Amino acid sequence: MKNQTFGNKKRPLTSNINLHIKKKIVKCTLWSVVLYGAGTWTMTQVHKERLEAFEMWIPRRMLKISWVDKVSNAEVLQKVQENKSILDIVQHRKFRWIGHILRHDSLLRDISEGRMKGKVTRGRKRLQMLSDVISKSYEVL
């Protein structure tokens, strides 16, 4: 979906528009699509790698750098005067969403805290978004 969205916006971003304007177009149009619902995601390593790859794919397209050119990610980020930030944005959105959920007494709070009544299912314990947020908050402290 993200590549299709970018494909629709490719012409203005690969044309001879000022780089500053290209970056604003990306932040307004693409990030909103890519990060839709990011506060509720349970992130795995594969998801993180794909988001980081997409984050680097966009500036390479803006600068018209081919995938066969040997240009490091650091050089690309330096040329567009940006930093890697997509995973930080996802984490910030998770903190905001969890804060909103935990302030209210609701079924969603019970589910996210794992206080559901009933029989425990077999198999490996599922990844929980709350445990991901808690582990990240200890890294921040």
Mind explaining what this structure looks like?
This protein has eight helices and no strands. With 141 residues, the protein is mainly α. The protein folds into two domains: 2-84, no CATH class; 91-140, no CATH class. α6 (86-102) crosses α8 (129-140). The longest helix has 18 residues, at 45-62.
Q: Estimate the global geometry from the Cα principal axes.
A: elongated
User: Can you count the beta strands?
Assistant: 0
Helix content: 55-70%
Number of domains: 2
Number of discrete helical segments: 8
- The low-confidence parts are none
Mean pLDDT across residues: 78
Features of this protein?
mainly alpha; elongated; 141 residues
Short characterization:
The protein is mainly alpha-helical. 64% of the residues lie in helices and 0% in strands.
